[in-house]
Structure formats: structure tokens, C-alpha cells
Design goal:
globular, alpha/beta, 509 residues
Amino acid sequence: MHQFLFLIWTLFSFYCCETSAASAQKWRSRSIYQIVTDRFALSGPSYNTSCDPSALRYCGGTWQGIVDHLDYIQGMGFDAIWISPPFTNVEGFTPSGEAYHGYWPQNLTSYNAHFGTVNDLKNLSASLHSKGMYLMLDVVVNHMLPPNPINTTAFSSEQASANPKNFSTGVAPFTDVSYFHQPCWIGNYSNKTEVEQCWLGNETMPWADVNTDDAGVTGILSQWISKVISDIGVDGLRLSTVKYVSQDFWQTFTNEAGVFTMGEVLSNSTNHTSAYTEVMDAVLDYPTWFKLVPAFSSPQGNLSSVVDAAVDSQQSYESGAFMTGAFLENHDQPRFGSITNDSALRANAMVWPFIYDGIPVLYYGQEQGFSGGAVPNNHEPLWRTGYNTSHPYYKMITSLNLARKAAINSGDYFLTTPMKFLRGADGHTLAVSKPPMLSLFTNVGQGFSSVVHWNITQSVFRSREQLVDVLTCRVHLSAENGGVDITSTNGMPKVSLPFHKTIGRWSPR
């Protein structure tokens, strides 16, 4: 049966129109705005629709709503968006709430009607492309949820029978229990086989683990994703729950997809994460994130630890840190604003992804100062803000995107030059050189009574070169030897570029 379905998917895919895929190299110059589709924008002008994240219910965000607010996203300088998984999910209120987030797939052959029609999704793709922007879909292939919770004991018995039956006509394309791993729960996360073959969830709400070790299943999923990419016009994929699926599967799947792929490997170990960089284009740089957050959460944070993690990424990953997604927040983790309300610490942490070797990823709502804690409180509705383009963080992010584009277009090989780190002797300052950009960080916080001082004696610019701090538009000069001597008040970061690289983007003062 597996081979038969694989043939059907192959023939189905053959007759689809091809799409012009964006290469990994093209994605390197992009910056990505991550959207929880249900919480970004409603269809129509209403901004007053109630939405309580703690209720764990759909709030009404749609693909058309995203189309209506693309100017808001592009206005910050983003040229790619990553949206929630778009496929049909389990319906109704489960023991863990409704599937508004998209990570409980039930039918991969149809699209989530809560977000709109398939034509709405195609229109989103077309609208993005008309603006020179890319579309990244979030994809889940590790597990599926049937309409009714699975009795795992009965499921195991059915798998053992000579002629296993369909356990749910609502699950597609895998309707037969033989397409799934034998039920078991992950008890030891150091056991790779257990992690890849046992189930997520629990007895109350088990997630049936797809048997991606089976060649027929791999073929079905590979042909399925090719069809989705072609039908919708997809430029890239964000791969969910990567470490729960074998690397052999990902090698086949990503090759068949033929578009940029970036995987989520939830781990604080570069050694563990690095293996996945050999089977997909990029990974979200979680090992660095695990150090970034505490480093800037308080004046007691360890800046050297985030440098060490970043250097490990540069040295361990297949393409260094260049093929990573650099982020501060996402839908799975508490917002940074829930950890500290110190404006200086938040500013320093927000700068990091934009000056990193990899691709910056901003989680929706950061630009409005959202501060929701752990899931589901970090899934706030954006429409309550009225899409305020005057918010200080919106303006700051706009400047950071402009600075990154200016650096990319400078001719100084910004995208292929690895960061170099100059650690401050006091433990509270850090300089990151990535020509033609120099970024200066501190974690002293907004309450620091003295000025912060960076004295960079190494040559990072030309002698007596006019520089502009892109966050304040203030101009200063490099030293005779190309170093810099800069101060900051209130613990704020600095991002400097040669002024001649920024003409037309900032007005100095």
C-alpha cells in the first residue's frame, strides 16, 4: 500500500506547475518576520476583536489579513515572512486547547479553513512576490493527530494484527496504523532512537509518530511537499521538530523540496545541532540563543558565554554561522520582555540577530514591545496595537534592517565575512566586528549611573573615517589607527557604519 500511495503522489506531483525556487544563497541576504497566522491580522479593518491568549482558542487571524498588512512588515525592512503551518489541524477543544498554532496536523492534503481558502494562501504568495518578498511555510511531518484521541493500547494491538485497519478516516495521507511507529513515550532524550521513534504528547492527547524510517512514507512526504511548494509558490520551509526525525529522512526530504530549508533543533549543544546542518540548508541557532538570553537578562549576565556559543557555531556548522537563523524570541519561548523590562538590556539583545553571521528572524510583536511569558501568553494578538509604526522598537528594527542592507551592499563581503569578537576587560562590554559594521554591546542596564566606554585599539575602519551610529544617527570619527573610542549613556548599544556606506539611508546629526 505504501508503494501504491507513493506512486499516486508521484503522478499527482508530475502534473503540477513548477515554481521558481529561491536558493539558499538568495536567502542569506534576507531578514525574516515570523508570524503566528491566527494572531497577526484579521480580515478587514477591525482592531477591537477580543482575543485572550490564555483561552487557547482561535482568534481569527487570516492569510488575507497578512496580505492587508504587508506594507507594515516591509516598512521595517523585512523581505521574507515565516507563517504558521497552513494545513488542516485537529478540530475542537482538546485537552490542550484548540490547534490555532497549526502544529497538530490531521490532514496534510488540505488547508486550515480557519486561516482562509487555498486561493487566499496563493494570493499571499503572489502578493509577497509582487513586493520582492519571500514566503516560508512552517512544516510538521513528525506526527499527526486524529479527530479523536488515540487509545494507544488498542493502537498497538491493531498494528500487531495481520490486516491493520484504518484508525481514522480523518487523517491524511496516512490513514493506516502501519504508517506510524509503535506507541511509546520518550523517557531518555539522550537515546537518539527513542527520540526519533517514540511519541510526543501523553496518554490524554497522544501525537501519533509518523514512521519516517519507512521508504514508502518518505516518498509520500517528499512528493507531497514538492506539490505544496509548486501549488502555492513557496520559497522556503521552516522544518519543525527536526531532532525527532532521522537525518536520513531529512536528507531525502530537503533534496526533494528543492527550496531553502531551515530546521528547528531544540538543543543547547552545537555538537548535537551541527549534524543537522549536513542535511538541510540552515538551522535556527538555538545553542547561541540559550546563552544570549541570560547574557542580556541582567547586569550579572555572562557576555563571554554568548561569544563562546557563537564561535562554536562558526566552527561546528557545515556553513559556519552563515546558514543559521538568529533570533531572540519565537512562538515556543517566553518573550524577552517577560524576563526583563529594562529598556537598555532589551535594546542590546534585540540588536544581536541583525549583526550576526546568519539570517535575522524577528518574532511578530517584538516591534511593539510585547512581553508575554511562556506559551500561550506569548501568542498575543497584534491587531490591538493598530500596527503602530511610531513605536520606538519598530523604528529601531527598521534602522537595523537598513544597516544590514547597507552592509550587504557595501562591497565589503558582509555576508561571507565571519564576525570577530573583542571582549571588554570589565565583562560588561563586547564589540563585534563584521566589516563594514562594528557593533558595541553592554549589559550594564538602563540604571547604570556612569557612561559605558568602548576603546577599540584594533584597526576596524580606515584612519579618521566618518562613522554613523545607525541607532541614533550621530556621527563620530575613527582614530588615527582605525580604532574607535566611543561612549554611551543609559546602557544603550551602538551600531556603526562608515558614513559613505549609509548615504541616503540616515540623516546625521
